[in-house]
Amino acid sequence: MGYEHLLRAAEREGVDVYERIMRPAIKGLYGDRVIWINRSIPTMTEKRCVLAEELGHYHTSSGDILDQRRLENRKQEKRARNWAYEKLVPLSGIVRAYKAGVKGRYEMAEFLGVIEDFLDQAIKHYQEKYGQLTVFEEKYMIYFDPLGVAEMFE
């Protein structure tokens, strides 16, 4: 699911997406069914990660949450990021990478089409959610630190 696929998903949801030059510190913004992506983001992979997070805001946030000093706004930001992590780095994707023989975080990020920092944050999210490991489809044990997958046999 590349950047273009996410753009089409946004369109199906009735969310308009525009790219424009913004301050470097701002990668994306969401409000009133409109997503703005910073055109100066250097790679499509990073734009994909930003678009997923902004779609996460569409699905999970409400109101103006720009003031991150407020606890409720930080919680909404975290929910949107978690939505993006689970969309772009699903547990099934980690298992697919394992089956494909992917070695290391760099290769896994490339395999999943995300930047390494996004992958690292997704793994941290899963650790918060599940602890050090989780069982996927009653067949795979996914370990989060160190990252690895073990196939269980009957």
Write a structural description:
With 154 residues, this protein is of the alpha+beta class. The chain is 51% helix and 18% strand. It starts with a helix and ends with a strand. This is ImmA/IrrE family metallo-endopeptidase. InterPro entries: IrrE_HExxH. Residues 10-123 form the IrrE N-terminal-like domain.
Annotation keywords:
3-stranded mixed beta sheet; alpha+beta; about 150 residues; 2 domains; 6 helices; Arc Repressor Mutant, subunit A; 6 strands; 3-stranded antiparallel beta sheet
CATH architecture of the largest domain: Orthogonal Bundle
Distance between the termini: 33 Å
Q: State the total count of DSSP E strands.
A: 6
**How many domain regions?**
2
Helix content: 40-55%
Please identify the oligomeric state. single chain
Give the percentage of residues in beta strands. 15-25%
CATH topology of the largest domain: Arc Repressor Mutant, subunit A
What is the number of helical segments per DSSP (H or I, 4+ residues)? 6
Structural class: alpha+beta
Task: Please provide the ordered H/E string of secondary-structure elements.
Answer: HEEEHHHHHEEE
- Which strands sit side by side, in order, in the main sheet? 1-3-2
Average of pLDDT: 93
CATH class of the largest domain: Mainly Alpha
Rg is 16 Å
Q: List unreliable stretches of 5+ residues.
A: none
Shape: globular
